[in-house]
Amino acid sequence: MTLATIRIYGGACEIGGNKILVNTKEAKIFLDFGTSFTTKRKFYGGFIKAKRFRMLEEYILTGILPELSGVYREDLLGSLDHLRSDEPSVDACIITHAHLDHCGHTSLLRPDIKFYIGATASILLEVREEIKTLREPEDQIIKVKDYRDERVLKRQIETFSTGKLLKIGNIRATPIHVDHSTPSSYGLILDLDGVRIVYTGDFRLHGPIHKMTEDFIEYASADDVDVLIIEGTRINDPSIHSEENVLASMKDSLEDAQGKAAAAFINLLDFDRLKSLISAAEHVGRKLALSPKLAYVIYHLEKRAANIQVPKLTSEILSVYLEPSSSGGYDLEKDYRGWLRRFIEECQDAGVCLVTPEELARQKGRYIITLCQSEDLPELVSIRPEPGSIFLFSSSEPHNEEQEIEREKVINWLELLGMRPVYAHASGHASQGEVISTIEKISPRTIIPVHTEHPKMFRELLERQGMGSKVIEPSQQHEIIV
Ligand SMILES: [Zn+2]
Question: Which residues are within 5 Å of ligand 1 (an ion), measured at CB?
Answer without folding.
Answer: 99, 202
